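Progress narrative, Year 2. Work on ABC transporter permease from Neoroseomonas terrae advanced from sequence curation to structure prediction during this period.
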Amino acid sequence: MMWFAKRVALSLLLVWMVATMAFGAIHLVPGDPAEIMLSEGGFAPDPSAVAALREELGLDRPLVEQYADWLRGLARGELGHSLLDQEPVDELIGRRLPRTLELILAATVFAALVGVPLGVLAAVRRGGLLDRTLNGFAAVFDGMPVFVIATLMILVLARQLEWVSTGGYVPFAENPSAHVKLLMMPAIAIGLGFAAVVLRMTRAAVLDTLNRDFVRTARSKGASPLRILVHHALRNALMPVVTVVTLHMGAMLGGTVLTEFVFNWPGISSMMVDAVNSRDYPVVVGTLFVIAAIFVALNLAVDLLYGMIDPRVRA
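Result:
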C-alpha cells in the first residue's frame, strides 16, 4: 500500500513541477499580452492604454502574487480565465480536448491494427524477405517527421488523386460520414510512425517469447505452430506492446501540434499555439497542466498495473 501511495504522491509532485515551470517559462517569453491585444495594423499602441489594460488584467502585479493566485484557483479546480475574451480556461480546454483525444485514439487504433499483425508476421518470417521489407518500411516511417507525412498525403491523396479533402472539421452530430472522412487523414498521418514503433516492438517481443522455455515445452508436447504463436507467444508478448502503446499515447498529446495545423483540426494543441502567439498566459499554463496531468496519469496507470501483476516491481 505504501508503494502505491508513494507513486501517486510522486505523480502529483511531477504535475505540479511541470505546471510551475510552464508558468515561469511563458512569462519569460518576450512580448506583452496587453500590447499585443491593443496592436492594430502594425502601429504601436498608446503606452497609457497598455498600462491601463495591464492593470485591468492583473499583469502589473508581481509574478509571485500571480502564481499564488493561480495555485489558489487550481486548488478550487479552476484554471483561470483567458486574457483575450475572459472565457474560463477549463471551458476552452473542455471543447478542444475531446477532439485531440479522438484524433489520438483513432491514430492508436490504426497503429495497433497495422503494427501488431505486421510485427507478428515479421517475427514468424525472421530473416526472410518479408521481415527485411517490413523492417525497412518501419525504419522509414519511424524516422520521417509527421509534418512530412501529412504534407505528402495532402499533395498525393487530396490534390492529385482528389480522394479526400485537404482538411477541416465537421462535428460528428452534424455529419457523421464527413467527420470520419476528415478524421482519417490526420489520424493516419500520426499513426504511420506510431505503427512502425508498434511493429518493431511486437516483433522483438514475439521473438523473445518464442525462445522461452515454456514455448519449447509446448513444441515438445506436439502443439501446432499456430497454437504456440497465438496461445503462448502472442499472449505473453502483448504486455510490453501495451505498455509502449499507452506511453506513446501520452506523448502524442503534445505532439499533434503540426498535424492539427496542417489538417486544420481544431484540437487542444493548435489552441495552445495560438495562445503562445498571443501571450495568453492562463490558456498556455492551463493547457500544459492538463497535458502533463494526462501523461502522468497514463504512466501512473502502467506503473500500478505492473506493480499488481509482478510483486518484484514494488520491491
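The mean pLDDT is 83. The radius of gyration is 24 Å.
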